[in-house]
Specification:
about 25% helix; globular; alpha+beta
Length: about 350
């Protein structure tokens, strides 16, 4: 690990001031926020990330960044709430099972106790070509160097949202649930607070996979806002190589509004198969207003994965992704909801 300076922020405004850099330095900025540090510290040890300055936000006293507030209009979750705190909240377990299940199936209990939700959505890919600096070809790590995964060992890589410059998979579990629930992200910058749809937080790789989000220099995520919707009949299903502490080969976050067996509304987020948290708009459009049957779910899954672009080792993800989505839809339909 290389030398770095360390600053401690006591409130959101001071954190933003310490981390802000000129707009021209957006891509090359070496200032990083650190909360739980469960991803950043690992990448620093590997010398994949080499920040010159860390701004510690774990001591911020702003109360609204540490709270979970549920009202008639929805849910507000502070960005410094830990994964463990949210998934053990009994009211959220009851009313938002899609959120708590996605957190429960992520990482270990020790990591969930440390990791903060703001940092969770910004975690970097688990692509071995990105995390191992002995590989020189990684456009995320060294822009313009190429992508070794394209013709390398790519069993765990993405089949949706890819480009000729990057096929790295977004690894998180909670983000697909957030995108399915039409969440918004509250962001603090030197110019004040703003909100953006969670679906606009992450960027497809395109020709610039090293630019992963639409956050600006010094932007600090302060909260997630989730409007009331079909969250009671919801779940998260994750398929992985082993049952405990493993990243998804395919996952589906599903929320349904059923009238009888007809879908008045359906929300679907996919994980493990795409370069960003993936909203399954094609599948939703095919299902909305229709009877939810196994054949209807299968047709919707076929439609969603029609644009999949597998490369060699990850070809089985096409079938796996479809079956995971169908299973999640049918299990959500069968839920008993009070």
């Amino acid at each position: 690990m290389r030398p770095f300076s360390y600053q401690v922020a006591t409130d959101g405004a001071s954190a933003v001031a310490l981390a802000s850099v000129p707009a021209s330095a957006h891509v090359t900025s070496n200032v990083q926020f650190i909360g739980g540090g469960t991803t950043l510290v690992d990448l620093m040890k590997l010398e994949v990330m080499q920040p010159s300055t860390l701004v510690d936000i774990s001591s911020i006293r702003d109360e609204d960044m540490h709270k979970v507030v549920q009202t008639e209009t929805g849910l507000r979750i502070g960005s410094l709430v830990s994964m463990g705190q949210l998934h053990s909240d009994k009211a959220i377990v009851r009313d938002y099972p899609i959120l708590t299940e996605s957190l429960w199936r992520a990482a270990s209990q020790q990591l969930r106790n440390m990791a903060r939700l703001g940092g969770n959505v910004l975690q970097r890919t688990r692509c071995s070509y990105f995390r191992d600096t002995s590989y020189e070809q990684c456009n995320k790590r060294i822009p313009g160097s190429g992508c070794a995964a394209l013709d390398g060992m790519n069993r765990g890589h993405a089949i949706l949202g890819t480009s000729e410059h990057c096929i790295a998979t977004y690894p998180g579990d909670w983000a697909p649930a957030l995108i399915a629930l039409d969440a918004q992200v509250e962001v603090l910058s030197r110019s004040g607070k703003r909100t953006l749809p969670f679906s606009e937080l992450h960027r497809l790789p395109g020709a610039t996979p090293h630019i992963e989000t639409n956050l600006r220099p010094g932007d600090l995520i302060t909260a997630f806002i989730i409007p009331v919707g079909p969250q009671r009949r919801s779940l998260y299903r994750k398929i992985r190589d082993r049952e405990s502490y493993q990243f998804a080969n395919a996952s589906a976050a599903v929320a349904l509004d059923l009238q009888g067996d007809v879908l008045r509304d359906v929300r679907i987020g996919l994980g493990g198969v795409a370069t960003v948290p993936w909203r399954a708009h094609r599948a939703e459009a095919m299902l909305r207003g229709k009877r939810l049957t196994e054949s209807a779910a299968a047709r919707a899954a076929d439609e969603e994965f029609k644009e999949a672009r597998p490369r060699g080792h990850n070809a089985p993800k096409v079938v796996l992704g479809k079956r995971t989505l169908v299973r999640a839809l049918l299990e959500a339909k069968a839920m008993e909801v009070s």
